Amino acid sequence: MSGLTHFDAKGDAHMVDVSDKAVTSRIATAAAWIRMEQATFALISEGQAKKGDVIGVARLAGIMGAKKTSELIPLCHPLPITKVTVEITPDAALPGLQIEATVKTTGQTGVEMEALTAASTAALTVYDMVKAVDRGMEIGGLRVLLKDGGKSGRYEAK
Fold first, then answer.
1. Does residue 72 lie in a domain region?
2. What is the pLDDT of residue 155?
3. Domain span at residue 82?
4. Which residue, among 100, 90, 102, 108, has the nearest Cα to 35 in the 3D structure?
5. pLDDT in tens, 28-61
6. Is position 43 annotated in a ligand binding site?
7. 1 has binding-site annotation
8. Is the residue at 6 inside a domain?
9. Active site: which residues (predicted)?
10. Has 87 been labeled as part of a binding site?
């Protein structure tokens, strides 16, 4: 299992011991999108969804998702998150919404999983809020755009 830190010498899954790692400032940004019918896009863009402000609720859900990551992903460490931003931008070309989540911490391990969880939770919330009018929505493009801090240094998606 060379290179996979979540497995021990026997190949069993375990939580990585980060106690000897340096405490550094860390940041990660992740993105996703949700594609929908043009009528659904108009409904959200015009603020006419029956359940309310879809983008505002999805933004809050993304923030909450980042904070709950260690409860959802079995081997993630609970982290002292210092900042979460979730930007949701209407994109008429999809049609749909572009989602970008950035998470910061000062700690001993990175926040990529928290950023990914924030972006996916925001997308799932959009789906939940308007599924009554568009069950065919598609969520995709979930990926890390940026990771910085710690021993492994900086990563930026191409």
1. yes
2. 96
3. 24-156
4. 90
5. 999 999 999 999 999 999 998 888 899 999 999 9
6. no
7. no
8. no
9. 128
10. no
